[in-house]
Please model this.
Amino acid sequence: MAIGPLVRGMLGPLERPISELYRSIFVDLTALVNQVKQWVDASKILEVGCGEGAVTERLVKTYPHAEITGIDITPKVGRMFQEDLTRVNFKQQTIKDFIAENSSQFDLLLISDVMHHVPPQMHEDLLTDAKDALKPGGWLVLKDWERSKTPIHLLCYLLDRYITGDRVRYKSADEFRDLIRDVFGKNCIKAEKRIRPWSNNIAFLIQV
Ligand SMILES: C[S@@+](CC[C@H](N)C(=O)[O-])C[C@H]1O[C@@H](n2cnc3c(N)ncnc32)[C@H](O)[C@@H]1O
Model:
């Protein structure tokens, strides 16, 4: 059962500020994108699972010369995006279909808070497709929420589970490291960073 769409539909013009506020309780997306920029400069960026465009907006501001593509399986892809659209392209598409026509194209690929919405048996495939979208030597930043035995994790789980209706499942940092190394190789993780305000937010910098 997903109550999110129902509640959001009732918010009208308050939907956007309330969505931003809600998200900021769990993660500072501006700090995330600033960290990505500190790690990697890029002129062609792909965001997989961009949702309604909260991270994409920050990418557009932080990378003023980059061409940015956001893909997601949701029909609401890019719906809340309010920045300049001239350098941005949103597509409702799976990454598999997308890379069939766009392999080895991107310098940087970002996946933010998507993996816990994807069934674990699909994780390896998704990351393999992400690898194929990147140019040789390109960068993937994988950001997710690490599970923990804390009240904030319980709150995050309950809200994610019942607002989105998805059967969310969170990995530990070690499970992420194992998955990443299985797909990209032993020495592919070049950096890791916890993103405020909660240490559950972990971002990995991975080189192809
Ligand atoms: C919590 S939202 C994150 C949106 C955005 N990345 C952000 O951080 O604001 C999770 C998104 O993952 C998307 N998603 C779930 N499974 C996916 C898949 N297999 N491929 C692409 N996107 C997917 C959902 O549609 C949803 O938009």
